[in-house]
Amino acid sequence: MTATQEKTLARREHTNGATPGAGRTEVSEPAGTRGRTSIADTVVVKIAGRAAREVPGVHDMGGGLSRTLGAVRDRVPGGRPNAGRGVKVEVGERQAAIDVELVVEYGVPVPDVAREVRENVIGAVERITGLEVVEVNIAVTDVHLPGDDQDDTGESRVA
Question: Which of 118, 108, 154 is nearest to 139 (CA)?
């Protein structure tokens, strides 16, 4: 038994003179509060990424290089889209700060999209993880124009 486990057990022992570890003891703490829960950064990244993508007007996420690499990986057989692309987080014991890079659809008011993304990300992360989100910083890195996804059908300028 480690020193931490011994301290925890000693703290839980009933104070009526029971010998530590002998027999059954009463525990004053509710079962749901015994122990700690830690949430990895990747969990918050995935939740925030998914919540941001749910907002109408968000075309893609990430900067130019991360989107290019992500597109290549998505085309590889068996490649899965990266749910956290374009999201960076700092996670503490009780709080999280989140940075999101977005590509918005042309014609959609950027401030409205940013507000909705911020609200959706905060709501999802706080609801799912119980962490307090102190800020969501949004960087719009590009605008998706109609026809950007179509292949270039023009003739090549070089022979």
Answer: 118
Angle between helix 110-129 and 41-53 (nearest 10): 140
pLDDT tens track for 90-139: 999 999 999 999 999 999 999 999 999 999 999 999 999 999 999 999 99
Pick among 3.30.70.1350, 1.10.510.10, 3.40.190.290, 1.10.760.10: CATH of 41-144? 3.30.70.1350
Rounded-to-integer distance, Cα 30 and Cα 52, Å: 36
Higher pLDDT, 137 or 147: 137
